[in-house]
Specification:
Blueprint: H1 17-41, H2 57-78, H3 81-105, H4 107-115, H5 118-143, H6 153-180
InterPro entries: SpoIIM-like
Organism: Aeromicrobium erythreum
Keywords: Membrane, Transmembrane, Transmembrane helix
């Protein structure tokens, strides 16, 4: 008898696989950012960097969409493993830059520059990676013959497209916010 068949009526459901994967990817990304922040704060010589012009929303969105596609494809091809390996150093570098900004400008301007757009971006990348990981597991299970019946393209593409469209929407919003509200020190 399966576990779901023995569950009592009214008992709380466990979070789904996608929800747990989103949470897992967010933890990995946040650990990388914190580690990079500590390292960036500890290296004062690195704080001397040139200031460029503020980025426009289109440039921010273009960069984030490239990252989103890379993360999604890597997660789809490797059941999430390569996406994690790609995100770790990328967000360590982000954390390093946060540490540098914190040291140069203090916590107020640094947090103002992050708090408005960073949660949207992190959620978008984690959602894309988690959705692609779940669908990758389904595809690999079907290819290995472990699933009954053939996995139809619509069963995989539907959730992938929903996750990707939601992620793109979050990134559009994050780019607009980053370009307008949080154009503080970088």
């Amino acid at each position: 008898m399966s576990v779901s068949a023995t569950r009592r009526p009214g008992a709380a459901r466990r979070p789904g696989t996608t929800t747990r994967l989103v949470a897992g990817f967010l933890v990995v990304v946040l650990v990388a950012v914190v580690a990079g922040t500590v390292a960036g704060h500890a290296h004062p010589a690195e704080a001397e960097r040139s200031r460029g012009r503020p980025a426009h929303a289109e440039e921010i969105l273009q960069h984030n969409l490239v990252v989103l596609v890379v993360v999604g494809v890597l997660a789809l091809l490797s059941v999430g493993l390569l996406a994690v390996l790609y995100l770790l150093p990328s967000f360590w570098i982000v954390g390093f830059q946060v540490g540098q900004s914190w040291q140069e400008h203090g916590p107020g301007p640094t947090l103002h520059g992050l708090l408005w757009h960073a949660p949207l971006e992190l959620t978008a990348f984690a959602l894309c990676a988690a959705t692609a990981t779940v669908q990758s597991r389904r595809l690999w299970s079907a290819a290995g013959g472990r699933e009954r019946g053939a996995t139809r393209a619509a069963e995989v593409l539907g959730p992938l497209l929903r996750g990707w469209v939601t992620s793109v929407g979050l990134l559009v919003l994050a780019a607009l916010v980053e370009a307008s509200l949080s154009a503080g020190p970088r």
